Amino acid sequence: MKTARHQQGFSLFIVMIVMLVIALLVVVTSQSSTTEMRISANEADRKFALSMAESGLRDAELRIQDFSTAAVGTVSFDYNCTGGLCLPAEPINIVDTKPRFTVNGTVPNNPIEAWKRPSSANSRKNLLEDPAARNSVAGQARNSNVRYIIEYLGERKDDKLIRYHFRVTARANGQNPNTAVTLQSYVEMTPP
Question: Distance between CA 165 and CA 162 in Å, rounded?
């Protein structure tokens, strides 16, 4: 009879160990699925921000297309990026005797890339990061999460045809403000 009681206690111990292992597996599985859900949500947010930044590039490209029909001298670029129209940090080449675009001011001795320039004199955020710059300096696409700037890179003359070059930098945020995507494209415009 003593052996029967000993075996029952041993069975209880084995069952407790098996239940503990199963509980541990459940906890690990639930943590793994939670982590995978977070990863997929972050990836979806990044894809959303990428899509929005691409829409900013397209919006800026349409704006550049409108430059071709604008009156000569009505579109102006400056170092302070007024209206999202910027002079680049590097020198620009103007070959046209009657320039199509107005260049206001000069580039300082220690220029900063346009997308890194502060949005105002006392701001630590740049043009594309500052939410206050969305409607004023950085230009705006159809969504308030998207900001872009257009830099006038200069002109090149090929066989009597002048080509105008621009660099567009667009930044968009996802649903999470920490998700940001920045894209650049180069655009060449020929007059009509």
Answer: 10
